[in-house]
Specification:
Structural class: alpha+beta
Distance between the termini: 52 Å
Largest sheet: 7 strands, mixed
Helix content: 25-40%
Radius of gyration: 26 Å
Strand content: 15-25%
Shape: globular
Bound molecules: adenosine-5'-diphosphate, magnesium ion
Number of strands: 28
């Protein structure tokens, strides 16, 4: 349909004033105003339902955002992130202006938390800049409040867009600084592999968060800013000079952790898990002043943990577990209810299948019998009665023959001193490099335990998902993909438990995981298509068309409707969610 004028929208809204809420459907469509376009793509069913999806667009002839600040995928993603937050700031200043029943008058944008990742909330092109909003259309009871709707849609949203999206000198400086910070992080991340590093933690970083429920930096007198031990200090090049506390330098110094096996030891409450968490989040860029913005980690770093009771579908956990008492094979191990050790073993193998290059594990979320078995216990319980080959006997192989590095927080077992390349110690929130001391101790006190790994760690066998087992429909035949809570995903009739996926960022990312799985099942799954192939295809799709292309509403070109709120997931979280779908069935492919 051809675009109408904003005046037409005004007339429609006044005409339906006082009518039943469904009359708002007449307002669907695209309406031009002098500087841009307002698109009402989806109208909520009633005042309490999920808000309506509305886009407001400003033409570049008015917005005048210079092409030079969004001419690469990273700068564009960063600029879009910045602009979404600007819109959000304006919305917050407006406050909760609820002028009627239910969600009447509420306006929101999905602008994200401390991480900066590609989102559908805002889009910049050479021709326009567009905010994708959720708007509660005003109602009194179940009646349309037409006059309020005119004010909200034709005046407020337009002014909101003009205020937050039109370029000005003040805006330009802040936007450039924001984009530069994100570009720095991504360029630092790209330097890691060439330097043989798995992560980098800049000096002066602020790692702890203000509380268990807040992701903001700790601001307190007791804060200890990060300082690299001299032996591990390296410098990475910056794409743009950074300000405080790095004094406009073009290099940034900090701790570089080399590939291989790294152990983080130290007493309880000395900051071990805080360091590991900062590293696990370092797969994503962070907002300026997060404190962890210059903590960068290899993008294929996966946090692995025990998760008893999850389902497992034909995963080869035999490198860790074999000869179960019930005689079940562990080469294609399936269970409806995993134990701590089988779940942790499966998580490692699944992460290797999704092509992780670094695995992170924390004693706080690992199971002891999977991590270690000391010499005395080996003597008491003979190997023939113990199905588990502990990680300590596999970790070097994983690093050497599979090129997968590991970082472990382990305060309690000296057995790992023999297998670690790097040993870091946390003491009063300060890191020291104890690698040499650990070697001395390992040499002076030879370990009496025997290595238990019976045969080489096998190559990871590809698994081929059966598309029919990945079923997004409910009993009533409708696709249902939604996010009932921050750590679950509803997929058809099933609710996937995502509590143990610590690297998920937010609900929009989970929603995108759901659509990615659905998309893969519909488009890519087939006779010989392994999980890692599916992940490659999904990444290719997102690299070409953006995360929006996962949306069921997406189409190519300038006229796609509001895609819904999505944020780009990593391949590892897509795989992990698929692996937790209890209906999943796979067959094994040829290696
Ligand atoms: P561990 O894993 O060694 O037991 P945690 O990492 O859980 O210790 O940290 C214990 C507490 O110390 C947490 O409340 C955390 O926020 C705080 N903390 C961690 N690092 C720092 C730091 N650099 N400065 C101040 N407090 C910190
Ligand atoms: Mg801890």
């Amino acid at each position: 349909m051809a675009d109408r004028q904003i005046g037409d929208l005004e007339r429609i809204l006044l005409r339906i004033d006082g009518r039943g809420y469904r009359a708002y459907r007449d307002a669907k469509g695209r309406f031009r105003f002098a500087e841009g376009l307002l698109c009402i793509d989806h109208v909520q069913g009633d005042p309490f339902a999920t808000p309506s999806r509305i886009r407001v667009r400003i033409d570049q002839s008015k917005a005048k955002i210079p092409r030079s600040i969004f001419d690469t995928p990273v700068s564009r993603m960063a600029l879009e992130d910045y602009l979404a937050r600007r819109v959000d700031d304006r919305l917050r200043k407006r406050g909760h202006s609820n002028s009627g029943t239910g969600k009447s008058g509420l306006v929101s944008i999905d602008s994200g938390g401390q991480e900066v990742i590609e989102r559908t909330a805002l889009s910049v092109t050479e021709n326009w800049v567009e905010a994708r909003l959720e708007v509660g259309l005003p109602a009194a009871g179940r009646r349309v409040l037409g006059r309020q709707a005119v004010q909200l849609l034709t005046q407020y949203l337009r002014q909101l867009a003009l205020d937050s999206l039109v370029f000005s000198p003040e805006f330009a400086d802040r936007a450039r600084a924001w984009v530069a910070c994100i570009e720095n992080q991504e360029s630092m991340r790209r330097q890691l592999r060439d330097r043989g590093l798995v992560c980098f933690v800049a000096d002066a970083s602020v790692l702890p968060r203000s509380s268990g429920v807040s992701d903001r930096p700790l601001a307190s007198n007791s804060l200890v800013a990060f300082q690299s031990p001299p032996s591990l200090r390296v410098s990475l090049k910056l794409a743009h000079p950074v300000a405080h506390p790095y004094k406009g330098e073009t290099e940034i110094s900090g701790m570089g952790i080399p590939a291989g096996v790294t152990l983080i030891i130290g007493g309880g409450y000395h900051g071990k898990s805080t360091l590991l968490r900062a590293i696990e989040r370092g797969v994503y860029p962070h907002v300026p002043n997060d404190g962890r913005e210059y903590v960068v980690t290899d993008p294929d770093t996966v946090k692995v943990r025990a998760e008893d009771r999850r389902g497992i579908e034909k995963v080869d956990i035999s490198p860790f577990i074999r000869d179960l008492p019930d005689g079940q094979s562990t080469v294609q191990f399936s269970t409806e209810e995993a134990s701590g050790s089988t779940s942790q073993a499966a998580a490692i193998v699944e992460s290797m299948e999704s092509e992780a290059r670094v695995l992170l594990m924390d004693e706080d979320t690992s199971v002891t019998n999977f991590m270690m078995r000391d010499a005395r216990m080996q003597r008491l319980v003979s190997k023939s009665n113990e199905p588990i080959t502990p990680l300590v006997d596999r970790i070097r192989e994983i690093s050497e023959s599979h090129q997968v590095s590991t970082m472990l927080v382990m305060g309690g077992s000296g057995d790992y001193l023999d297998v670690a390349d790097t040993v870091l110690m946390m003491r009063n929130y300060e890191v020291s490099d104890e690698t040499a001391a650990a070697r001395r101790i390992a040499a002076a006190m030879p370990n009496a335990r025997a290595n238990e790994s019976p045969e080489p760690f096998p190559t990871i066998r590809p698994r081929i998902p059966d598309a029919r087992s990945v079923y997004p429909f409910t009993n009533r035949g409708r696709v249902r993909i939604d996010v009932p809570s921050i750590d679950s995903l509803r997929f058809g009739n099933e609710t996937i438990d995502l509590r143990c996926l610590e690297q998920l960022t937010d609900r929009s990312q989970i929603r995108a995981v759901g659509w990615a799985i659905q998309f893969a099942a519909r488009q890519f799954m087939g006779d010989d298509v392994s999980i890692s192939r599916l992940l490659d295809e999904l990444e290719k799709l997102m690299n070409t068309h953006g995360v929006a292309s996962l949306s069921p509403f997406w189409r190519a070109g300038d006229n796609a409707p509001h895609p819904g709120n999505l944020a780009r997931p990593r391949r590892h979280e897509i795989a992990a969610a698929l692996n937790r779908l209890r209906s999943l069935r796979v067959s094994s492919g040829s290696t």
